[in-house]
């Protein structure tokens, strides 16, 4: 049977917060019987936009990661709830029943993504419902998806086989796969948030004149056989991205025309700006 999925493209998110605000607009002060009680104005972020800065000045970038409930196939929140207070619908959407969940403080603690919020006033746990009340009324997508101006959010109904193909074709990944909850929210370009880069700028000096080394070959090696290669742009800049944080020692080999080859050893903890690398000759 077809179920709902969401794809979030990290590269397209600009932190405008339209998704967060449209969620507030839909749920604050509104009761949706059978789906959700009113969301609090403050203290709850059903669409929680996380932020990550990478690198060192001047080579830095920022990624924004919208994190809603993942509507996990193997959902710890369902297992932690009593009396069927949290359940999965046939279309994959995970719902917290506000009446049955009253007072069940273990439910928020069970979510490894921190996607469940406690409403003190009502004594209930609350989270994103994928706007199930709207979808059941004929809407084609939740409010957050409709409000996103960059196309960073997409929601669609599909079968497992179709989604498997999409994962392969688009390079989609779950956030925190180690949680093993099989999320229905998948990310594109997740490396922008969860992995790191090595970058720098290559220049050369010849006859007392310094210039950018455009087209220099930068070879990144780790151990034997494992390598990546790139070329510097017209400013002499390079960036090799999508590396595992804390992944150990690397050797960077830089060659440019007949300049003396430069070899740099680094231990990679997080994104690294090597600064200006000066070559002699050329
Ligand atoms: S993300 Fe958290 S709240 Fe949502 S289904 Fe998974 S475990 Fe439950
Ligand atoms: S509306 Fe789209 S671009 Fe804006 S913060 Fe949300 S996901 Fe990012």
Structure description:
- The chain has helices at 18-27, 76-80, 106-110, 132-136, 143-147, 160-170, 191-194; strands at residues 3-9, 48-56, 59-67, 86-88, 94-96, 117-119, 124-126, 153-158, 185-188, 196-206, 209-212, 217-222, 226-231, 237-243, 248-255, 262-268, 272-280.
- Strand 2 and strand 3 (59-67) form a beta hairpin.
- The chain is elongated, with a radius of gyration of 24 Å.
- With 282 residues, it is α+β, with helices and mostly antiparallel strands.
- The strands form 6 sheets. Strands 10, 11, 14 and 17 form a 4-stranded mixed β-sheet that branches. Strands 13-12-15-16 form a 4-stranded antiparallel β-sheet, with no helix packed on it. The chain has a 3-stranded mixed β-sheet with strand order 8-1-9.
- Bound molecules: iron/sulfur cluster (SF4) (2 copies).
Keywords summarizing the entry:
single chain; 282 residues; alpha+beta; Alpha-Beta Plaits; Immunoglobulin-like; 2 domains; 4-stranded mixed sheet; 4-stranded antiparallel sheet; 16% helix; elongated; binds iron/sulfur cluster
Distinct compounds present = iron/sulfur cluster
Low-confidence runs (pLDDT<50, min 5 residues)? Answer: none
Strand content: 35-45%
* Shape verdict: elongated
Oligomer kind: single chain
Through-space gap between termini: 63 Å
Number of strands: 17
Helix content: 10-25%
Number of domains: 2
């Amino acid at each position: 049977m077809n179920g709902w999925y969401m794809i979030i493209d990290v590269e397209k998110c600009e932190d405008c917060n339209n998704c967060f605000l449209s969620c507030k607009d839909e749920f604050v002060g509104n009761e949706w019987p059978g789906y959700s009680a009113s969301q609090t104005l403050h203290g709850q972020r059903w669409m929680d936009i996380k932020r990550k800065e990478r690198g060192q000045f001047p080579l830095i970038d920022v990624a924004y990661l919208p994190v809603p409930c993942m509507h996990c196939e193997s959902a710890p929140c369902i297992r932690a709830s009593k009396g069927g207070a949290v359940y999965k619908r046939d279309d994959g959407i995970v719902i917290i029943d506000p009446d049955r969940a009253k007072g069940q403080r273990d439910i928020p603690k069970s979510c490894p993504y921190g996607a469940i919020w406690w409403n003190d006033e009502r004594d209930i746990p609350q989270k994103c419902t994928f706007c199930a009340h709207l979808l059941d009324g004929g809407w084609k997508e939740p409010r957050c998806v409709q409000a996103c101006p960059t196309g960073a959010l997409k929601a669609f109904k599909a079968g497992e086989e179709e989604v498997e193909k999409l994962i392969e074709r688009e390079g989609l990944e779950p956030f925190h796969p180690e949680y093993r909850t099989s999320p229905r929210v998948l990310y594109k370009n997740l490396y922008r948030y969860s992995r790191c880069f090595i970058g720098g700028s290559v220049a050369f000096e010849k006859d007392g004149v310094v210039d950018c080394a455009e087209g220099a070959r930068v070879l990144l090696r780790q151990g034997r056989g494992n390598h990546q290669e790139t070329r510097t742009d017209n400013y002499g800049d390079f960036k090799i991205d999508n590396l595992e944080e804390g992944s150990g020692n690397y050797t960077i080999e830089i060659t440019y025309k007949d300049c003396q080859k430069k070899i740099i050893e680094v231990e990679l903890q997080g994104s690294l700006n090597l600064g200006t690398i000066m070559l002699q000759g050329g």
